[in-house]
Amino acid sequence: MGSKNKLKRFKENETFKNVFQPSRAELVEEIYKLKGNWRKDVFKNENPLVLELGCGKGEYTVGLARRYANKNFIGIDIKGARFWRGAKTALEEDISNAAFIRTQIELVDQVFEENEVDEIWITFPDPQIKYQRTKHRMTNLQFLERYKKVLKPGGVMHLKTDSEFMHGYTLGLLHGKGYEVLYANHNVYKLEGSPKEVTEIQTFYENQYLEKDKAITYIRFKIN
């Protein structure tokens, strides 16, 4: 993507009512104004709140919002030029239960109050395979502790990935900690009975993986 295109998207994001771009200082040095108030102030309802972490172009956030009108969905990514597409689609289609936040995933517990979130989706994260990159892996213990803070007791997490490494790493970690694995599938498009929300919503990159006949894996689990 050219720098002109990026700048154009950044400027458009600033005008979108469904995009929120708090500064790091707003989140770290003070209590963010929307923390604990997302339902009331943004969505104007008390419906369940669902996050997509590392939402990329926002296809999953928008796809879930289309499917579940009785839930609120927020896509989070540090790359605003990417989720511009999802935010714009949501506005064009008048999808009022989808919003986007530009921030780093490690600040999730500064953006949301304890027990404010009902579900979390992680879709196609970078597996960070090298050992020294373990700290950046989105299902490592440090990240899970942050997610646990904002999730309601009994809140559900979803991991959908093309990385067998990430799938195995996460399953091993969950079993090692005694967390509850509700569903695990190493090839959701080849095995019958896969949840429809997993197979019927696809990201841009997922389509590319499927064209190469790459297996897509999925885990649903609880960490509370």
- What is the CATH topology? Rossmann fold
Number of domains: 1
- Under CATH, the homologous superfamily reads Vaccinia Virus protein VP39
The major pleated sheet works out as: 8 strands, mixed
Q: Helices and strands, in N-to-C order?
A: HEHHEHEHEHEHEHEHHE
Estimated structural class? alpha/beta
Question: How would you explain this protein's 3D organization?
Answer:
By secondary structure, the protein is α/β, with parallel strands linked by helices. α1 (3-15) crosses α5. The chain has one domain: 3-Layer(aba) Sandwich (Rossmann fold). The chain contains 10 helices and 8 strands. It has an 8-stranded mixed β-sheet with strand order 1-4-3-2-5-6-8-7, with helices on both faces.
Write a short abstract of this structure.
With 224 residues, this protein is α/β, with parallel strands linked by helices. It has helices at residues 3-15, 24-28, 38-43, 59-67, 80-92, 108-111, 141-150, 164-177, 196-199, 204-211, and strands at 19-20, 49-53, 72-77, 98-102, 117-123, 151-161, 180-185, 217-222. 38% of the residues lie in helices and 21% in strands.
Topology:
Blueprint: H1 3-15, E1 19-20, H2 24-28, H3 38-43, E2 49-53, H4 59-67, E3 72-77, H5 80-92, E4 98-102, H6 108-111, E5 117-123, H7 141-150, E6 151-161, H8 164-177, E7 180-185, H9 196-199, H10 204-211, E8 217-222
